[in-house]
Structures are given as C-alpha cells and as structure tokens.
Amino acid sequence: MGAPRAEEEWAVLMRAAIAGDSGAYKRLLVSLTPALRGIARRDCARLGLDIGEAEDVVQETLLAIHLKRDTWDVGRPIGPWIMTIARNKLIDARRRRGAKEPLPIDDAFDLAAPEAADDGLDRQDVDRLLEELGDRQRDLVRFLSIDGHSVKEAAERHGMSEGAVRVALHRAIKTLAGLYRKGET
Hints:
Elements: H1 4-18, H2 22-46, H3 53-68, H4 78-96, H5 105-111, H6 121-130, H7 135-146, H8 151-158, H9 162-184
Helix pairs in contact: 1-2, 2-3, 3-4, 3-9, 7-9, 8-9
C-alpha cells in the first residue's frame, strides 16, 4: 500500500491510538488520507467509476478503519488490513453504481479480500454517534455508508442533487470524526 516506512509509522500510530492516544489517532488519519486518496482515484478510474467517487471511498474507508480498528492484529502488518478495508469500500461503491459488466479476473481477485467479522461493539459506537447528528445527516450516513445505497438513490430520496448529497455526507462524516475525538479526550 504505502512505503514500508509509512506502514511502520501507521502501525506505531494505530497501536498508540488503540491504547487511547487520540493525538496519535488523528496523526494516523492525516497520514493515511493522501495514500488512500491516491489508491481510490487510481482504482476508481481502473474500474470505470466516476473520479468523483474517489473521495467518497476515502471517507468511507476512514470511517471503516475507525469502526474496525480493534480488529487489526497488532502483531501483523497494517498495510494489508487497510487495503482490505479500502478494497471493500471500492467494491461497495462499484455495487452502488450498479456495475454489471464483469471484472477481469485479476481485478476481482485483488478486490475480493474478506472483511473482518463485526463483534457488535462497533455498531453501538456508531448508533451512539449517529444520534448526535441531525435527522438528514443521520439518514444519509445510514442510507449510504451503512445500507450501501448509491448517491443517486439518496439524492432522489431527499430531493437533493448528487453533489449536495456528497457534500452533506462529507460534512456528516467530519462531524462524526469530531464527535469521536471529543469523546476520546
């Protein structure tokens, strides 16, 4: 995913974050974002997705990393764990777009890594944080990021443009991140 040095840094930051260091967690997310953005842009283009989907994939990947951080085995490299999450979010984006054309087998193999099991605790965190959002933001996050619907479907449901849905989702995720940081301190 990233250079070995970057992955080592991410592992150190994630270990500190899991131990309760919210500053390390923030540094991890700031460091991961450009790498995830590059991967998302490349893979969206490769899979025929609109380049505008890349930022959605990045935001959803960061949210999933947050929700699944306790599933990372600290004794294993962090890069493959992060890539699995990013690939799953890319697959979700492709599905939401209703992509019907077959993927070349090499691409399907690259994107098919299984996601870690959910132990139910993450859902409680998500529900608690989502209750802090306004009704529309909460519904958009659930509809898009949790239920896996498309931006187009959300736009039709709420009578918004697709761009407005993306902006609202981005703001909701940013608000959730702020709420999380506030709760960690």
